[in-house]
Specification:
Shape: elongated
Number of strands: 0
Radius of gyration: 42 Å
Structural class: mainly alpha
Length: 811
Amino acid sequence: MSKMFLSRIKPSQVPSSSSPQLRKLVHDTIHILQTNHQWQNSLRTHFDQSDVLVSDVAHLVLDRVPSAQLGLKFFHWGSQSPHFRFSNGLAYSSLLKLLARSRAFSEIEPVMGNMRIEEIKPTLDALSLLVRAHADSGLVDKALEFYFKVVEMYGRVPSVVACNSLLEALVKRRRFDVARKVYGKMLTRVDGEIDHVDKYSTSIIVKALCKEGRIDEGRKLIEDRWGEGCVPDVPLYNTLIDGYCKKGDVGSAYALLEELKSKGFLPTLAGYGPVVDGFCKEGNFKMIDRLLAELKERGLINVDIYNNVIDTRYKHGCAVEAVVTVMEMVENNCEPDLKTYNILIAGSCRLGRLKEASQLLQLARKWGLMPDKFSYTPLLHAYCKQGEHSRALDILAEMTGKGAATDLGCYTALIHGLVVAQDVDMALTIREKMRDIGLVPDAQIYNVLINGVCKEGRLSDAKLLLDEMLDLDIPPNAFVYTTLVDGLIRNGNLEDTRKVFDLAIEKGIHLDAVAYNAMIKGFCKFGMMKDALLCMNKMREEHHFADDFTYSTIIDGYVKQRDMDGALKVFGNVVKTRGKANVVTYTALINGFCNRQDFRGAIKTFKEMQAHGLEPNVVTYSIFIRSFCKEGKLAEAAFFFELMLMNKCLPDKVTFHYLVNGFKDYTPGATPNRMEESEDNRKSMFLDFLEMMISDGWVPSTAAYNSILICLCQYGMVRTALQLRDKMISSGMFLDSVSFASLLHGLCMEERSQEWKNIIPCDLNEQELQAALKYSLKMDQYFCEGKTSKTTLILQSLVAGYKSSDQEVEV
């Protein structure tokens, strides 16, 4: 009778798993599986000669076998033999763990199916490993399935390591709600204790809360878990700090950084970095400098921090000494990288410091760095912008010579710069050079070129460029066709515009609202209002809804045709479909009323616009001023000028032109000092000073300029007043006593009384100073409610100085 048969009728004596005999048996079994071609027979003989059943050691073999393939081979051999049945779950569970470690996921379900048939329960360790393996491999739904199987079978959650893997996978896929439910289950007490959560579990959920912007909840969670497997450390604080910064609450992030230090922790770069970045986004250089000092002191500062700060300084217009900055970085053991130089080069170019940018390029090479297209392209742009096309071309040649990659972006930059500088011919030449080296321009470059030639009225060149695109099989995009349509319309070529527009539609180009608006603008320009409306209907059919520009263009078209009924009908449709029109639409309608001298209709529309919460713009006010001046309603023109200043709407040179021309023949007393159509009967400051100056001998046009200056300064628009002063001087006028007094008032109101001599130097004689003082006293009535202003005191001092010097001469 064989030993195997005897072992079946009496319990086998299984040695301890740590015994040399059993370790050798397991080792030999694995060796046979790996090396013996007749492994089945060898294994049968091997176990026949031992006193140990396969079922008793199968789990030990499967725990040590190096691959899933060998493990499955051994398991199937044992399970198919009539003499060896795996009656317990150890072998199955070890096989599951082997498959999980090997990521042999397709084999796991069949094994689980056999276990269900044989009513064998996997161990908690095996199921935990299945959860972890699936989660780590991104198979989150399967990991959850095994997670719930553990809960169902054992009434508890898998191991902490497995749960943490599942939490990480869920958070990575932003399944935050599920992650929090899993974490909540992990906190369930077993036998009165929580042993399924560690600090890492909590940090994962805190990270999830921070990603949701719920940083305060994450912080509270840490406080609630303090001491229960969770002692806050620097990484946990860094997670919260990063969360606050991403939410935009850099103040709370900085407070947490300070709290971290107060508790004896030393913050790391991972904590400082987000806070520095947050203050950079705010442009808070006081805090940036404070943090930089800390980082330098602790030797933590790195090149990324420096790059961020340098870029921020440029973006906020701060002075950056490029070479000094590079030297400072080197002194702080932080060697600048290519990104550093690229930021400095781009910043220097934006400031027009091209010599400095070129020096930085050379310095980068000196330090062994290879400049790339991001190093050269800002210089290309800058030289083109300054009209130094030969230097831009030299830069392009240098890029090629130094091995820096040149691509369409570089050539686009150069061509765009040349077009902006109005050197279209050179841009076209560059296009030819591109083709010579085998680099085919794209639709964007052709769009820039077509835009350039259209602006110069070179329509034949625009058509040639379009034909060239078609010959090269470069499909013109919507931007190209839109540019052509707009350019042709600007040059009054409606026939060709229609051809290009129809060609685009024929080619299946999905033209956008901009193209349709350009076409509508062309029809309106030629008074073809029916065609404009048909084009708008076609626009709707293409699912482009008419916008404010569309309606404003059509209303303006009707206005120019003196068809107010048509304009009002379209305006009614705007209000009906959109609820209200915009400022441009209202302004077009106001222009129509003013053109037919229906000022009551214009003012009614003006008030309706304001009632809808829309602020009139400079065009709106200028239309009123122009129209009232044209009709000799000068009090009304003055009223609207002061109203626009009161509403903080900056006038422009067109506004000033209308006013000066309107009042050039003004006669004091000829115009009532009130606004007839308005309920506002305030005294007009503009007319008050105008009449006073004309009575004192000023010519009306000069008096008008001075009245404008006085009003601008009264309403705090001193910068605009100074710009107008410069224009007056350039046109041959001089700074007289009234303009001097008004500008001095404006500067004093801005608390710049200490620097007035550098801005409006005084070369008035005593008589002119007396006149300035006279007008300053009158300005005090408006500016200071009758109180003596600082301006008046300054002028009194200047007059007294003249008198004192005269007395000295007499003596």
